[in-house]
Amino acid sequence: MIPYSSLHGYAVSSDDGSVADSQVMNTGGNEHTGTGREDTKLGLLDSIVNRDSVEDRRRITERLAYFNDKAPVSGARPLDGENGQPPWPVSSGIPEIPGRDFNDPALRSAMATAGCLIVRGYFDSREVAAYRDVIDRVMELTDSTEESRRHSQANPDVFQNPPSNLTDLLPEPKLGNARSFNRKGGSALCVESAGVCEHLLEFFERTGVREIVLNYLGEQPCLAARKWVLRRPKTPIGPDGWHQDGAFMGAGINSLNMWIPVSRCGGDSGAPSMDVVSKRLRHIVGADTGDGIFEWSVGEKSLAGVLADADIVTPQFEPGDVFFFDHFLIHRTQHADQFTAPRYAIETWFFGEKNFPANQVPLRW
Ligand SMILES: O=C(O)CCC(=O)C(=O)O
Ligand SMILES: [Fe+2]
Fold first, then answer.
1. What is the distance in A from the centroid of ligand 1 to the CA of 333?
2. Which residues line ligand 1 (CB under 6 A)?
3. Nearest ligand for residue 263 CA
4. Quick one: which ligand is closest to 346's CA?
5. Centre of ligand 1 from the C-alpha of residue 25, in Å
6. Which residues of 113-128 are buried (b: 16+ CB within 10 A; e: fewer)?
7. How far apart (Å, rounded) are the C-alpha atoms in residues 128 and 260?
8. Top mutation candidate among 347, 348, 349, 360 for ligand 1, by most atoms within 8 Å of CB
9. Residue 189 CA, ligand 1 centroid: distance in Å
10. Looking at ligand 1, which residue's alpha carbon is closest to its atom 7?
């Protein structure tokens, strides 16, 4: 697998201000030498604004409706067969690999050893950094007053254009609760904008992500409306956020999360990264001990047990990097006394199309 960043160099204009100030950092040795595609000539925002919002809405509605008559069927998952995987050669910290060296066996080995993998410079850093404006637009609309929300519903904006069946699939108060939970933490469901969803699916396809996910999961991948999230976390960030996503999605699923930093974070950036317990777990710990913030949190005692033979790692990320993990990894948004810069990220959970978490509202790919 050759990373997208080495295959498709191109120039992105920053004079329209649409590219994040963090764009200049890149660790992956990307070459930006090409002449550019439509997206980048136009600017990412414009290319999304120019999409057919009626068609995008129809497509996302259909992707969701595909699962109306489906129930999850459990089957073989990569994590069940991990004993035969060659261990990752480095025994501590988070496995890391440059995008140019990434391949499917590396992902399987890292997952089997540490439950996660950082791929440095997989994407073109400037292309990813441009998503910052997209996240701002979607969050602006979901954060706005009820009145302006009603107004935007009457005049659909591509950045607030959810699929028509979302309210049936998440009947109130579920949808309202999901929206306010995200709003309070500084995030928004990607499905608030069918155009952003379709654009991202095209981006994932074009950059080889679909193939990676398909090969890893060993079955057709799908996504989920509730676990596809645009993030700009609000500060201060509390210390109690430790969790395993499997605690609320279900342990038996087949999953791979691709967390994409859209701006520089961690290290000396002043922006929150993620705190990660680098350890392969195959079960849910401590969701029910009562000492966590939510019923699905990992509480202090459970965490202490896991940390007996594992470390907390807080990586520094640059746009272009990818962080893969599954529903058993213990992590939280980085906790620190003070952050001075915002952090943008796109969290996309992929699931097996057969072995999917029904409560997360699956979406066909
Ligand atoms: O972006 C973050 O800080 C948290 C993301 C997360 O919890 C996840 O991707 O599962
Ligand atoms: Fe999470």
1. 6
2. 231, 233, 245, 257, 259, 274, 331, 333, 345, 347
3. 1
4. 1
5. 22
6. bbbbbbbbbbbbbbbb
7. 8
8. 347
9. 13
10. 332
> Quick check: helix, strand or coil at residue 97?
strand
Find, among 190, 207, 184, 84, the residue nearest to 134 by Cα. Answer: 190
Query: Which residue range forms the structural domain that includes residue 222?
Result: 4-364
Of all atoms in ligand 1, which is nearest to the CA of residue 347? Answer: 9
Residue closest to 123 by CA, chosen among 317, 331, 327, 349: 317
**259 Cα nearest atom in ligand 1:** 9
> pLDDT digit string (tens) for 316-349?
999 999 999 999 999 999 999 999 999 999 999 9
Q: How far apart are CA 228 and CA 138, in angstroms?
A: 13
Atom index in ligand 1 nearest the CA of residue 345 equals: 1
Q: What's the order of all strands across the beta sheet hosting 330-333?
A: 312-313, 274-277, 330-333
**Which CATH number does the domain housing residue 272 bear?**
2.60.120.620
190-227 pLDDT, tens digit each: 999 999 999 999 999 999 999 999 999 999 999 999 99
What are 82-85's contacts with CB under 8 Å, separation 24+? Answer: 82/108, 82/111, 82/112, 82/280, 83/112, 85/109, 85/111, 85/112, 85/113
CA separation, residue 341 to residues 96, 232, 268, 271 (Å): 25, 10, 10, 5
* DSSP of 267-307: TTSSS--EEEE-----S--STTSS-SSSTTBPPHHHHHHHG
Which stretch of 104-113, 152-161, 279-288 has the lowest confidence by average pLDDT?
152-161
The residues whose Cβ lies within 5 A of ligand 2, an ion, are 245
- 272 CA: nearest ligand 1 atom: 3
Q: How many domains does the chain have?
A: 1
Question: Which is the closest atom of ligand 1 to the Cα of 241?
Answer: 7
Cα 262 versus chain centre, distance:
10
Q: Give the span between the Cα atoms of 121 and 321, in whole angstroms.
A: 5
